[in-house]
Specification:
With about 325 residues, this protein is of the alpha/beta class. The protein folds into two domains: about 140 residues, Glycogen Phosphorylase B (Rossmann fold, 3-Layer(aba) Sandwich), CATH 3.40.50; about 170 residues, Glycogen Phosphorylase B (Rossmann fold), CATH 3.40.50.2000. The chain is built from 14 helices and eleven strands. The chain has a six-stranded parallel β-sheet with strand order 8-7-6-9-10-11, sandwiched between helices.
């Protein structure tokens, strides 16, 4: 049995799009250990199948390098696939003499420390992130062996019924609206989230989720609905595992292009996602994948490749083009 270390040290959505790469048929008999960002253990622990992993803190490189070196010396992997990592991770793979070191040839360290790197133009957004990750296996499996579709991550939530009972929520009788995001893509306007919630709360209870970082998107919504018994705000009140359970038990989840949308889709919950038309932010590149996914983007051909052109674009502000009425046409 060959042994491998697969590395991705960034955000939730990125990891959800990457983790299923280990399920391609070529790797079915491999022993794979994941190296992921600190704080994301709840994803591989509740993935199907559960993955082996260690967490590294990229903000503490000295300690993390030591942990990675210990893993490599104990495991003695045949292959290391570095999908996203800082330079010191790739240096450590080279230092520890991992025989096959794979990754994208782009930054300076990739040319120094990979011996089987491949070039990819991900900024062209010609396929999904999961497909780009699958293609990194090409030096191992060959082109013919990677014609199968990229696998989709399946997850299950840990039983956390107390977090529903505490807030008097019943399974499948509430919807989740998660309006916040880290800002890596265009978001839906707050006024559209407000209008959507107004329409949804007549059908079922609405739960708002988010962290402190989502406050810019939640502030006005919390103020508007603060006295409405049909709208419950759980901002900063859920652990990651409780969040998984709340998402899994929801009737539906509404969110922009962010990690929560990817988690909900992987849990099998129906999702409604709002995506930017900017080339590197599109649903073609970052769309949530799962059994019940509905994704919405503005109409028109966006001229931007990496960042919104603002008033220089004839389509601006394009995200307003996705109306709540259009979204609810697909909502049962």
């Amino acid at each position: 049995m060959k042994k491998a270390v697969f590395i991705r040290l960034d955000k939730i959505g990125d990891l959800v799009c990457t983790l299923p790469v280990d399920q391609v048929s070529y790797l079915k008999d491999w022993d794979i250990t994941w190296v992921i960002a600190k704080g994301l253990s709840f994803i591989p622990e509740h993935a199907e199948p559960r993955r082996k992993f260690i967490e590294l803190d990229r903000n503490a490189p000295r300690e993390s390098r030591r942990e990675l070196e210990n893993l490599l010396r104990d495991l003695k992997p045949d292959v290391a696939l570095s999908i996203q990592a800082p330079w010191w991770v790739n240096y450590t793979l080279w230092k520890c003499r991992v025989p096959t070191r794979l990754g994208v040839l782009s930054k300076w360290d990739s040319f120094l420390f990979f011996n089987f790197g491949i070039r990819q133009k991900r900024s062209r957004a010609q396929q999904h992130e999961a497909d780009y990750n699958r293609d990194l296996l090409r030096p191992l499996a060959g082109a013919a062996a990677l014609t199968e579709p990229a696998p989709v991550l399946k997850m299950h939530a840990p039983a956390q019924p107390e977090c529903l009972q505490q807030h008097q929520l019943e399974p499948r009788k509430y919807v989740v609206v998660h309006p916040g995001m880290a800002g890596s893509a265009l978001n839906w306007p707050v006024k559209h989230y407000l209008e959507l919630i107004e329409k949804l709360k007549d059908r079922s209870k609405v739960v708002l989720t988010g962290t402190a970082g989502d406050e810019p998107w939640l502030k006005d919504l919390k103020e508007h609905f603060k006295k409405d018994p049909q709208v419950l705000c759980l901002q900063n009140q859920l652990t990651p595992r409780q969040l998984l359970y709340v998402l899994e038990q929801a009737r539906t989840v509404f969110a922009p292009s962010t990690g929560v949308l990817h988690l909900a889709a992987s849990l099998g919950t129906p999702v409604y996602g709002f995506y930017s038309p900017i080339r590197v932010q599109t649903e073609k590149r970052w769309g949530a994948r799962g059994p019940q996914v509905h994704l919405f983007s503005p109409s028109g051909n966006c001229p931007a490749s990496h960042a919104c052109l603002g008033d220089r674009c004839p389509l601006h502000p394009c995200m307003e083009d996705i109306t709540p009425e259009r979204v609810l046409e697909e909502f049962p």
